[in-house]
Design goal:
The complex is a heterodimer of chains A (340) and B (186).
Chain A lengths: L3 H6 L4 H20 L3 E2 L5 E2 L11 E5 L2 E5 L4 H9 L5 E8 L12 E10 L3 H22 L7 E4 L2 E4 L6 E3 H9 L9 H10 L10 H13 L9 E7 L8 E2 L2 E12 L2 E8 L4 H18 L9 H7 L5 E7 H8 L14
Parallel strand pairs in A: 1-5, 9-10
Antiparallel strand pairs in A: 2-4, 3-4, 5-6, 6-14, 7-8, 10-12, 11-12, 12-13, 13-14
Helix pairs in contact in A: 2-4, 2-10, 3-9, 5-7, 8-9
Chain B lengths: L1 E2 L8 E4 L2 E11 L7 E8 L5 E7 L3 E4 L3 E10 L3 E5 L6 E5 L15 E7 L2 E6 L3 E9 L12 E6 L4 E5 L7 E5 L5 E5 L1
Antiparallel strand pairs in B: 1-6, 2-3, 2-6, 3-4, 4-5, 7-8, 7-10, 8-9, 10-11, 12-13, 12-15, 13-14, 15-16
Classes of the chains: A alpha+beta (340), B mainly beta (186).
Chain lengths: 340, 186
């Protein structure tokens, strides 16, 4: 982990930091060439979109609680409603956590971009091009042979498109022998999990059961030698995403996995303000039931959505994890200056 | 009962009615989702290693184990032999269970051994250990750079890099986790 003193003692430790710098440059080039606006997002927010497990960091101005944004999504959507089209933001974002780990830090750099009149399938294509573009940029800048291949911690990975795509329905069927239909009620999901020896399943809610089974049974089976898109997540997990018109049990959300790490999360955005408000109230209620701290209700976004939100798809990408992989570093802190 | 937030390396749990030792753990949270603990657990009976994710706060059965401070006696090809300094009982420990093999085993150091159903399942080395240098080259004249090192062989057979001023028969303190030289013992 580079602390300043370690960088002083061992100059080779600058390498991860410099790779991240190059990645940020290549991202800006990529979107500038495509005519995207670069927007600066405020870091502080008076309200946030409700999400039931969001572990939010906050501060106070006078008596008012102010949140450190967990993503720039709130501001991206405000400007979309205000008339800005294709745009991207690179910002520090913040998440509370129990402890630091190799792949988690309370502050990290996130890229979010939004593409007007598109859906999540288009985001997948843009992501494929972006990842390869970054690799080519690094190769040129570091005077290496330009190639789609990289090695991360001994594992060869090929970034050439197309990346394999796996729907949650397929993944549940193939790796967990579960049909999405049979886990629609909490009771049924708990019973199936109990049979799979999740002995405390009766104490878990739907989202936790899903995340547990995903982490234990699906994630280890994702391809190691290619990036992979996992898409069409259960609607229960997607309060800000448009439901798939062809399959009402899933929402049009995609996650990108690379080297076993979750790198990006995007979706066809919910544009119906009434549906959005209903989901926020539902998530707020769930937080109350889980005994989690309340988050001030997001009103500004709903008010702006009432004026009309365009058809749009947006995606957030963790740049530190991406830099770890491109720099072949095991620890998130190898690509950042830190004092924690 | 224990909670996963308390999960720690070396902890012994019952998982699916089998005894496991936790060999690694890491906090994990998917997106803006819940909090979880990724673990690597090893079946004490079969040696099989599992990567298992638990929900934070999930209750796990911690097994009753015996913890003893023991003295190292000697080792053969396969095993190390320890003695309880109070009861003089001896205990055989497979060398593969000991980090670094015989590198950090010395009769003057104390080792914490975890015993489950009469058998050793984990050996905790002292954080630092002082060992004699049995072989090292003389310092090369003129090489005065502050962090220059040379190889030394210690009485246990361990090979470490030491500063140039260390000589044969000096005693050096080694960090048993990193295997790195810490200081010269006076």
């Amino acid at each position: 982990m580079p602390r300043a003193i370690e960088l002083k003692n061992d100059p080779s430790k600058w390498q991860g930091i410099f790779i991240k710098e190059l990645i940020l440059k290549s991202i800006r080039n990529f979107f500038n060439k495509r005519g995207f606006h670069e927007l600066e997002s405020p870091i502080l927010a008076p309200t946030l979109p409700q999400e039931r497990y969001l572990n939010v960091l906050s501060t106070k101005i006078g008596d008012q609680e102010i949140y450190l944004i967990p993503s720039t999504e709130r501001y991206n959507k405000l400007v979309l409603c205000a008339g800005l089209g294709n745009h991207f933001v690179i910002s520090k974002v913040f998440r509370g956590m129990e402890e630091l780990s190799l792949n988690h830090a309370p502050e990290f750099t996130m890229l979010e971009w939004y593409e007007l009149d598109h859906d999540y399938t288009h985001l997948m294509e843009s992501t494929e091009i972006l990842l390869l573009n970054i690799k080519n940029y690094l190769d040129r800048k570091l005077k290496r042979t330009v190639s789609s291949k990289l090695t991360y911690q001994g594992q060869n990975i090929d970034l050439s498109a197309p990346f394999p795509r796996l729907s949650i329905r397929q993944a549940l069927k193939q790796y967990c022998s579960i049909d999405l239909e049979e886990i629609q009620t909490l009771h049924d999901f708990q019973n199936i999990a109990l049979k799979k020896h999740y002995n405390n399943a009766k104490e878990f809610d739907w989202q936790s059961l899903f995340e547990l089974i995903f982490a234990n049974e699906i994630e280890p089976n994702l391809p190691a030698d290619k990036p992979c898109f996992v898409y069409d997540y259960p609607v229960q997990l997607c309060p800000l995403t448009k439901v798939n018109p062809n399959d009402p049990l899933v929402a049009m959300k995609v996650e990108l996995y690379l080297a076993g790490k979750e790198i990006a999360n995007g979706y066809t955005e919910q544009t119906d303000w009434q549906e959005q408000e209903r989901r926020f109230i539902e998530e707020q209620k769930a937080r109350k039931e889980l005994g989690l701290p309340q988050i001030n209700m997001e009103k500004e976004m709903i008010e702006l959505m009432k004026l009309g939100m365009p058809t749009v798809a947006g995606i957030g990408m963790g740049i530190d994890r991406l830099a770890m992989i491109y720099a072949d570093k095991a620890n998130l802190s190898d690509v950042n200056l830190t004092s924690l | 009962m224990a909670f996963t937030t308390e999960i720690r390396k070396g902890m012994i749990i019952s998982y699916n009615n089998e005894p496991y030792i936790v060999i690694a753990k890491e906090f994990y949270s998917p997106g803006k989702g819940g909090a979880f603990t990724r673990t690597k657990i090893k079946n004490i009976k079969t040696g099989k290693i599992l990567n298992q994710v638990f929900k934070s706060g999930e209750k796990l059965d911690e097994l009753e184990v015996e913890t003893k401070s023991m003295q190292y006696l000697y080792a053969d090809e396969k095993d190390a032999y320890f003695m309880d300094p109070i009861s003089f009982e001896q205990l055989t420990v497979p060398l593969e269970m000991v980090d670094g093999g015989t590198n950090y085993l010395h009769t003057e150091a104390k080792y914490i051994i975890i015993i489950y159903e009469g058998a050793a399942i984990s050996v905790q080395l002292p954080a630092k250990i002082a060992l004699n240098v049995v072989e090292t080259s003389e310092a090369v004249k003129g090489n005065t750079s502050g962090n220059a090192t040379k190889e030394a062989i210690l009485e246990t057979g361990a090979k470490v890099f030491v500063p140039l001023f260390i000589r044969q028969d000096d005693k050096v303190v080694i960090n048993t986790e990193t295997g790195l030289y810490v200081s010269k013992e006076n």
